[in-house]
Every structure is written in structure tokens, then in C-alpha cells.
Amino acid sequence: MDIFLSISAILLVIIGIIGCIVPALPGQFLSYGALLCCYFCSYSDISTSTLWIYLALTIVVSIIDFLLPAYFAKLFGGSKAGERGATAGLIVGMLLGSVIGAIIGPFIGAIVGELIKDNSDVGRAVKVGIGSFLSFLVGTGFKVILSLVILIKIFSELFPAIGDWFSNIF
What we know:
The chain is mainly alpha-helical. It has one domain. It is built from seven helices and no strands. α2 packs parallel to α6 and α3 crosses α4. The model has no long low-confidence stretch (mean pLDDT 84).
């Protein structure tokens, strides 16, 4: 059973890292699932408190990733219409299920929201759209970092020499 769980952990964390970039896959949750697989191995030293901490981090990163488009739209001078447009664009882009839809959706949504409110300032609307695009990059960065930390934790558990190497470096 340990071999199955170990292979599952490795596959899930790799798919999880890919899923952090591809919006159709819940990358950080797949990485957490990999951590659970590793936890249930008989040789694992992962504590339940570690699992709870990583679960909390996974949920927080997910919430941040969902809220960032509206926040960045506002940060780049957008109005409530731009924030709502960015959020609507994110939802529509995710429903389309493509990477391009989730990247461009908030960008277009923020621009459309701003233009509906005030169609005389296209430059400001595009600036708000760029802010929404940057939010995608920041949110993806948070998810990838979390998944890479989980990857390191899993490899440290599965291969103790790697864990020793990391503890000597950091």
C-alpha cells in the first residue's frame, strides 16, 4: 500500500503544480491531496497539525486567488463596475474551462465593466484590465509556491536524503 500511496503522492503533486496554472484543475487542492497520500504512508512523519496548517494555507491561497482580480482592478484605479467586471470575467473564463479564458476573462471583464460605467476613458479601462491580468499572475504565483512547498515536503518524506539536504541548506 505504501508504494501505491507514494506513487499517488508524486503524481498528484505534479498534476497539482500543473493545475495551479491551468484553471480547470484545482492545483493547490490536488497538491494537498498528495500530502494526504504521503501522510497515510506507514513511514511518514507528517503530523496532523502539519496537515491542518497546510489545509488552512490551501484554503487561504484559494480565497486570495479568487478575490485578487477585484482587488487589483480597484488598485489600478478601477471602480466598483471594474471590480464586478473582473470577477464576472473570472467566473465566465473559468466556466469556459480554458487557460486563455481564465487569463483573459478578468482582463476583458474589468475593461467592459469600466467602459459600461464610463465609456469616455478607454485608457483607464485598459489600465484596470492590466491590473486584473497582474492579479492572475500574483494568484498563480501564490498557488505555485504553495504547491512547490508541498512538493518539497513530500519528497523529504519519501526520500529522507532529500530532506536532510534541504535541512542543511535552509
